[in-house]
């Protein structure tokens, strides 16, 4: 396994490609897989296993998943990464989840998101990073604002969650905007 590593003040981000994920599933037994990927339940494992079984990447799309590791405890506390990475068009969608509630509201996801944005523009040569956020997801809406993403519009009834369709707000950040912020 060849982790891509990003270090922030409080986190170590361990990046996994589709090839890395395939290797994890092909070379390890379930208990070890759950440990490597920080799964907290059988359901977490099954969800990941289905992704593996159905294939992680397709024609011109890939992803880079980062496990968020708290430096002080060496515990996997969440995930952040770039998915729907369209290599032909140099764009990807950022996604994230804090899986351990004890680490919420401490600014850790903001730290991770900023590092992933930097990585996407600097090392993956992305032109555009997108985010789709539920209109009721206040913490994510604040993250978009903090990172100067531009609100582009609403995708009506875009996600099917808990038996109903929900809207998504589409945000983006372009490479030029990122570079101007770094001046």
The percentage of residues in β strands lies in: 35-45%
Measured on Cα atoms, how large is the radius of gyration? 16 Å
CATH architecture: 3-Layer(aba) Sandwich
Summed up, the domain count is 1
Query: How do the SSEs run, as a string of H and E?
Result: EEHHHEEEHEHEEH
Question: Residue ranges: pLDDT <50 for 5 or more in a row?
Answer: none
- Counting DSSP H or I runs of 4 or more residues, the number of helices is 6
CATH topology: Aminopeptidase
**Can you count the beta strands?**
8
Largest sheet: 8 strands, mixed
Q: Strand order, main sheet: write it out.
A: 1-2-3-4-5-6-8-7
Euclidean distance between termini CA atoms: 36 Å
Tell me the layout of helices and strands.
Layout: E1 4-7, E2 11-16, H1 18-27, H2 30-37, H3 42-54, E3 61-70, E4 75-86, E5 91-98, H4 108-122, E6 128-134, H5 138-146, E7 150-161, E8 164-174, H6 175-181
Parallel strand pairs: 5-6
Antiparallel strand pairs: 1-2, 2-3, 3-4, 4-5, 6-8, 7-8
Question: What key attributes describe this structure?
Answer:
183 residues; Aminopeptidase; single chain; 8-stranded mixed β-sheet
Write a structural description:
- By secondary structure, the chain is of the alpha+beta class.
- The protein has one domain (4-181): Aminopeptidase.
- Helix content is 34%, strand content 38%.
- It has 6 helices and 8 strands.
- It has an 8-stranded mixed β-sheet with strand order 1-2-3-4-5-6-8-7.
- Strand 1 and strand 2 form a beta hairpin.
- The radius of gyration is 16 Å and the shape is globular.
- It starts with a strand and ends with a helix.
- 23% of the residues are buried.
- The mean pLDDT is 92.
